[in-house]
Amino acid sequence: MQSQSQSPAVEMSELFPYAQGPALRACHPGDKALEVTWDNADIARYSYRWLRDHCACPECRHPITRERLYMPLEDDAFLNASPDATIEDGVLALRWADGHQSHFDAGWLHQRRPEARADDGVPLAEAWREDFAPVHVSHADMMAGSDGRREWLTALLRDGLVLLDDGPRELEEVVRITELFGPMRATNFGARFDVQSKPNPNNAAYTAIGLELHTDLPNWRHPPDIQLLYCLENEAEGGASLFADGFAVAEAMRHEVPEAFLRLRDTPIDFRFQDEDSDIAVRAPVIDVDATGRIREVRFNNWIRDTLRLPPEEADAWYEAYLIFWQRLREPRFRVDFALGSGQMVAFDNRRVLHGRGAFDPNTGRRHLQGTYLDIDHLESHLRVLARHASTAAPATPTTSTNETGVS
């Protein structure tokens, strides 16, 4: 198999490296699509409309922002697009009926085969195995640069849970860590919150009682994605941290008790938080899936479930499914328990991993955690940037370009 050089043959207005890939061998026009073959025998088909829409020349993509300029609505020939296609010096060259020319890099096309998953450095979520143990990354490695951050981000996005060890016992350290990746996500509890027992609490987290496994703020239309909890002090007896993989529980239910899974997936219920200043409510199912059936969110918080507005028969069936989910959350195969130490931070995916704690005795020592939330988009973005920097030591210089500015 031949591979292209490090420099792309065509500038495709794409920052993620694509020059390394098999060379193009041939193209075969059909009625509605073009079939392309590479030297490694891979074959893919692209519709002519897709090819016209993805032209990366300076007329079709802004040379600086890389945003799409081409507007199919203004092209009378778009729906009937049918170009002349050739392979020229390893580049797919298309000449459209209106005279416009498009060029496609072989590696870029190969990355975007319809059946290929985008490999941008962001891992897919993986359900916890029975012997699951969270990854530990040192605070020093996190602060040192890309390797530590890549390890921490990969574990968090893949497993939904990761630990940071040996950090300083300094107020606001959780803020400094969060801002490495993006701004804090503010809620009705503020942007940064202190988890400690206090008088007149407006949330069970600010007491010394045990907290059943739950996700935070399911009463929001878009609950916070990632929660970070930084331990400053933990000298009190009790108070172990509890975590369970909601995705793994939901998947187990899908296979073991499918009727209960479908009940929690298909029945929206009401969540609501109220205090003197806030009244935030939403109606949503406990388990949410995407168009492919892949689980993308769990909402579970028994404290702020609102009135169950279902007829008796549906209510009884829902309660049965709900209790099955709850019971499985307590099974050892789906959970991990540990005590956070001073200078240790846990980060977890709040829309996947449920958290809780054991009761603690505030008379036996101080317990003080600081927490905040962070949008997962910032973490995925950071990991993609790290991945593309790791893929190329220096910016590529096109050998043949349809973009006169040379923006990469």
TrEMBL record:
It comes from the Bacteria. Residues 28-110 form the Gamma-butyrobetaine hydroxylase-like N-terminal domain. InterPro entries: AlphaKG_dependent_hydroxylases (IPR050411), GBBH-like_N (IPR010376), GBBH-like_N_sf (IPR038492), TauD-like_sf (IPR042098), TauD/TfdA-like (IPR003819). Keywords: Dioxygenase, Iron, Metal-binding, Oxidoreductase. Residues 133-373 form the TauD/TfdA-like domain. GO terms for molecular function: 2-oxoglutarate-dependent dioxygenase activity; metal ion binding. Pfam families: GBBH-like_N, TauD. One of its GO terms (biological process) is carnitine biosynthetic process. The keyword Iron applies. Its cofactor is Fe(2+). PANTHER family: GAMMA-BUTYROBETAINE HYDROXYLASE-RELATED, OXIDOREDUCTASE AIM17-RELATED. Belongs to the gamma-BBH/TMLD family. This is TauD/TfdA family dioxygenase. It comes from Chromohalobacter moromii.
